[in-house]
Amino acid sequence: MGSVRAWQDAYPEAALPDLLSRTRNVGIAFSGGGARAMVAAAGQLAALHELGLLREVRYITGISGGSWATAAYSFAQLGQNGTASDDDELLGNITAPEDICNVSLNRVNPRSLRHLAMDFGPYGPYAPGPVGWEQRRGLSREGDLVTNHIWHWLFKPMGVPRHVSFTWSNATLADIRRRNPHLANTTFVLPTSPTRPFPILGIALIGPKRLVPFEQSAKASQMLLLEATPLYIGAAHATRNQTYAPRARRTAGPRTMQVGGLLEPFGFGGLAPPPAALSAGVTSGLLALPSLPPQPFALENATFASSNFPAEALATLEIPIRSWVATPLATGYWSPAAAAAPPRAEPFLLGDGGNVENIHLIGLLKRRVASIVLFMNCEGPLHSPAAWDPALAPPATAAINDYVPAFFGLPIEASDEVEQLEQDYGIDYTADQVFAAADFVPLAQRLQAAQMAGGGVVVTTTHVTVANARWGLPAGVVANVTWVYLSRAGAWEKQLRPEVARLVVPPPHRSPTPLDYGETVATGEYRDFPNYPTDSLDFSPGQANMLADLTGWTVKHNAAEFARVIGSAPS
Predict the structure, then answer these.
(1) Considering only CA atoms, which of 352, 356, 373 is closest in space to residue 364?
(2) What are phi and psi of 512, to 5 degrees?
(3) At a CB cut-off of 8 Å and minimum separation 6, what does 481 contact?
(4) 278-328 residue pLDDT tens
(5) pLDDT tens-digit readout, 225-250
């Protein structure tokens, strides 16, 4: 038996007096993008920490590679044997551009987040390596090798135990054990400090495993973004009856299931739902589960699901689901929200939150967060007006990343066959509009102007939402959004030593006149810097340090703006 808290149409952290009293109504969000996104986020976190601003932030969210940084920063057990002693060691120092040299580039603290980008293993964090590799790392081929690899690579260095559930505080843990005395000796992991922002990891709920492959045209209507947090896993203000459509020639027909609602993490992932869900009209309650999941849905499960970018394509294409590199994570799912019939459970496929929304803006808007900082650590460079005039040409992936225009309801043109395949079978942002289409061109022009000024692309704008029934977001929500776009920065480049500048600044002949900061170096160790390809997983020390130093410098160079948007936000 298990006594598990559930919620519907509410965000439980709003009832945490310590969180609300010590923070401002600010959320920071880290985009997807593999190792690039993780290392860039490490630099940005280091700078915010150095400026003393992180303690005022209420929410920290991450999707895909951004979830790696978010989870590691939130749950690193600092000061344990073999882990970073404090945040300075975990996040690393930001080297000023004039001080970057061969020595600084090749020096990486093995206890830092940056070092993780250099230790993925021979096949990245997802795939088993060569025969015998998993045994040498203390793993077994029995069980889920994928999540074991994620744990060994990401969480073991952070001091987080394997296969344990997570919760927010000693108070929430005591409440769980009071309701479930048989868990008195069960290990849970908590955030490293009670002063951390409230973490949210975005995961795509794809559909019932037995119905794959799904109809390609149903991606946007079927996928739901789940939020994994220390208090709950699920989707608030999103309860609905969802029909999942398999390919027409499958013998199994469409299946309609209720989705939505929130459940405590230690009760999520099982196939034994309670006899009845929450009652209509109540915000929360306790549900009596016949049994708890046989193995907890742990942090390694949540981060693997959040970053498994091929999952939706595999669930759409007619490719056999295999138990290795890109397998969508299957876990039991049922909705705790009120319904006419008892909850039904079955194995669902989970995948990369970036298939639905590659930076978690919408969840922060739904929470009425007043000031939102979006760290868009994307692969697609922003191109300057010399290459793209947003007032004359529609957005394309050759000019700007693919998820910013989607927030304004604008389609984006794929620039090559690979990106077209991603749009056809993987990502689908067509249901993500939250702002008026007319707001996009002025934003894009301001982003370009900031890029040309050379101090990093940091732009703050005020927006009013348009209604999005799919996400449960009403019209009229006002938010200040600070858009931070991963880009070259002319002022940073001018301060580099000549021998360092040659590594990361493209020759003048590669750029048109006037300069296009969307152009990147084409060869060498730092090819495509700072917008390294998402599938580049094993960084050299220099690649990791150079990227984190740039992103950290961008935050510090714009310290006054970050102090304004974070420090002046309402409590």
Answers:
(1) 373
(2) -70, 175
(3) 361, 372, 373, 374, 460, 461, 462, 463
(4) 999 899 999 999 999 999 999 999 999 998 877 766 667 655 544 444 455
(5) 999 999 999 999 999 999 988 876 55
How many angstroms separate the Cα of 305 from the Cα of each of 234, 417, 554? 13, 26, 30
Encoding tokens for residue 166? 């997570």
Q: Are 436 and 370 in contact (CB under 8 A)?
A: no
Determine the pLDDT at residue 123: 43
Q: What are the residues whose beta carbons fall under 8 Å from the beta carbon of 212, sequence distance 6 or more? A: 246, 314, 315, 321, 349
Is residue 551 within 8 A of residue 94, CB to CB? The reply is no
* Least confident window among 53-57, 143-147, 231-235, 341-345: 143-147
Distance, in Å, from the CA atom of 62 to the CA atom of 129, rounded to the nearest integer, reads 27
Measured CA distances, 569 to 62, 319, 328, 372, 458 (Å) = 21, 48, 39, 10, 17
What global pTM score does this model have? 0.94
Vertex 80: Cα angle to 202 and 171 (nearest 5): 60
Q: Is 398 helix (H, G, I), strand (E, B) or coil?
A: coil
- Name the amino acid, one letter, at 113: L
Amino acid symbol at 238: A
Q: Cα separation of 147 and 163, whole Å?
A: 9
Distance CA 400, CA 407 (A): 13
Residue 198, both tokens: 């409230």
Residue identified by tokens 């708890």 is: 292
Cα-atom radius of gyration of the chain, to the nearest Å? 23
Structure tokens at 59: 């929410």
List Cα–Cα distances, 273 to 124, 211, 240, 337, 437, in angstroms. 35, 21, 18, 12, 42
Note every long-range contact of 517-524, with CB atoms under 8 Å and residues 24 or more positions apart, other chains counting. Answer: 517/381, 517/382, 517/383, 517/384, 517/451, 517/452, 517/487, 517/488, 517/489, 517/490, 518/381, 518/382, 518/383, 518/384, 518/387, 518/388, 518/399, 518/487, 519/381, 520/381, 520/488
